[in-house]
Structure formats: structure tokens, C-alpha cells
């Protein structure tokens, strides 16, 4: 497991929560994710797959 510290800018973020990859893809498919952010998600998925990282 990766230990990450998340720092949110109070003025820029209304709320945040961790989602599974499956949940993120559901949001993308339902048009509830910004297009450029969706592209970045898929770019990261490809990088992980190339490095042999399991995303299940």
C-alpha cells in the first residue's frame, strides 16, 4: 500500500473521497468526470499496466 498525504486547498475543493478504479470509470462513463481528467486517468492506467502493476 502506498502512503500518501493529501493536502487540499480549502478555496478550491468542496469535498473529496477515495474511489476504486471501477467507481472512477463508472463516473467517466456517465459523463461525471472532466474530460481532461478522464484522459489522465487512462494515461495512468496504461503506465501502471506497462509496469506490471495490478489494478484489481
Main features:
single chain; 56 residues; mainly alpha; 0% strand; globular
Order of secondary-structure elements? HH
Overall helicity: 40-55%
Beta-strand share of residues: under 5%
**Rg, Cα atoms, Å:** 13 Å
The number of strands is 0
The average pLDDT value, as a whole number, equals 88
The rounded distance between the terminal residues' Cα atoms is 13 Å
Question: Layout of SSEs?
Answer:
Elements: H1 21-29, H2 35-50
Summarize the structure.
The protein is built from 2 helices and no strands.
Structural summary, described in words:
By secondary structure, this protein is mainly alpha-helical. It has a domain at 21-50. Helix content is 45%, strand content 0%. The chain is built from 2 helices and no strands. It has helices at residues 21-29, 35-50. It is globular and about 35 Å long. The model has no long low-confidence stretch (mean pLDDT 88).
Amino acid at each position: 500500500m502506498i502512503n500518501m498525504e493529501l493536502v487540499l486547498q480549502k478555496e478550491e475543493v468542496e469535498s473529496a473521497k477515495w474511489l476504486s478504479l471501477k467507481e472512477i470509470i463508472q463516473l467517466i462513463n456517465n459523463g461525471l468526470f472532466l474530460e481532461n481528467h478522464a484522459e489522465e486517468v487512462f494515461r495512468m492506467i496504461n503506465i501502471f499496466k506497462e509496469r506490471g502493476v495490478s489494478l484489481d
